[in-house]
Amino acid sequence: MAITARDLSKYYHIYSRPTDRLKQMFFGRRRNFYRDFPAVMGVSFDVGRGETVGIVGRNGSGKSTLLQMICGTLKPTQGSVRVNGRIAALLELGSGFNPEFTGRENVYLNGAILGFSRKEMEQRFDSIAAFADIGEFLDHPVKTYSSGMYVRLAFATAINVDPDILVVDEALAVGDEAFRRKCFARIEQIKNNGATILFVSHSAQTIVQLCSRALLMDRGEVLLEGHPKVVINQYQRLLNVKGEVAEEVRGTIRSMGTDEAFTPPPETGGQAQDTTPSTQEGYDPHLESKSRVVYETRGAEIRDPHIVNTRGQRVNILEVGRTYTYTFRVSFEKEVERVGFGMLINTTKGIGVVGSSTRPVQALHLTSVKAGEEAEVSFMFKCAFTPSSYFINAGVSSPDSEDGEFLHRMLDAVAFHVAPTDGRTSTGIVDIDIVPKAIKLGSESGPSGS
């Protein structure tokens, strides 16, 4: 095992008043003037060599504290953690570098901490400088760096010390888009080279794409460990609730069995039963979503999501190039203003392909709805996907609701299959009618003559 954590916990002392801290110094263990705050409670898990494990959870759930204990920068209150191999970490912004040192000096300092000689770091320095791409700022104190420059240098250093284990916190979120793409490409490369990666992110798609397993943390506990898409679906469900409802959802998630958590969601019922997909538009009653996740209602409820063709017929086998409409009904349980609706088409692995939302366009809002009223929502689209199975989400929200969150949402509400079409050459996910062409040319030198 690369990482083994057993009953790992971290408690902080919380004092109601500053004077209580002084009293504690005098009374010692004879009396406590504080209460314990459990940042992490009883966490146990293993990470095998070569695994990529993602950790998700709301802010304050204990993710960063857990990573710090694994990296050895924070001592656990109880429990143990064992790490086998050289570990390189990119934790919260500001950790690992001396702000008074220049970027160059910090690179050599980090290398020395990891056991590299100065000569070894000199051999790696050009690669670090090229990846960070911060120019002359390498010789300036890092306290003068922007957050983006700091992350560039920290990440470039971490990936160029040949780590057996790479730990990445949400720090990459402060980088610009081009640098993030470069970082994730390098993480994929490190992953393919057999390194172990422990990754924290709020990005559902990143976790699904990179990780073979995921953990859901909440209030310092690991609520769920399992397949990335299963964990992400439950994480998104938990984000949408508060109070007593949140406690019920937490209990439901915690009670999920190992088999349920680790079993990849089946693509579709139809694909499992019929290995010869239809080549024509139609409706297959066996082709249904087996991974639908329905959020708790918060004043509205989505009903009967489905796809129809231009003749109004229900379909779930689509043909490339034809026009379809995704539609659902919403019944309202309370009065709501400025109601918006949305949809998102995903691959079976949970990667978002394309979606639509009425929220940015005020003219598409429902100005006001009353309790007991209904709305019919439709999204017309042209099928431009390569042959495969896909899911569609459905959502209804209002900026006037609590926290501006969803009033209701369904993940993987509808499953559909795009039928194969002879003669089409598109690969990937989207079919944009690419027309390939190849012309044979003569030799470059041409015929010789006198």
Helix count, per DSSP? 11
Shape, principal axes of CA atoms: globular
| Total count of strands | 19
Number of domains: 2
CATH class of the largest domain: Alpha Beta
- By CATH's scheme, which homologous superfamily of the largest domain applies? P-loop containing nucleotide triphosphate hydrolases
Which characteristics define this entry?
single chain, 450 residues, alpha/beta, Rossmann fold, Coagulation Factor XIII, Chain A, domain 1, 2 domains, seven-stranded mixed sheet, six-stranded mixed sheet, 19 strands
Structure in words:
By secondary structure, this protein is of the alpha/beta class. It folds into two domains: 3-260, P-loop containing nucleotide triphosphate hydrolases (Rossmann fold), CATH 3.40.50.300; 269-418, abc- transporter (atp binding component) like domain (Coagulation Factor XIII, Chain A, domain 1). The chain has helices at 18-27, 63-71, 103-113, 118-132, 147-159, 177-192, 204-210, 228-239, 243-254, 258-262, 269-273; strands at 3-15, 34-47, 52-57, 78-83, 87-90, 165-168, 196-200, 213-218, 221-226, 293-294, 300-308, 317-318, 323-332, 336-347, 352-357, 366-369, 374-382, 389-397, 406-418. Strands 10, 12, 14, 15, 16, 18 and 19 form a seven-stranded mixed beta sheet that branches. Strands 5-6-7-3-8-9 form a six-stranded mixed beta sheet, sandwiched between helices. Helix 3 crosses helix 4. The longest helix is centred in the middle third of the chain and has 16 residues, at 177-192. It is globular. It starts with a strand and ends in a 32-residue tail after the last strand. The relative contact order is 0.10. Mean pLDDT is 86; it is low at 270-277.
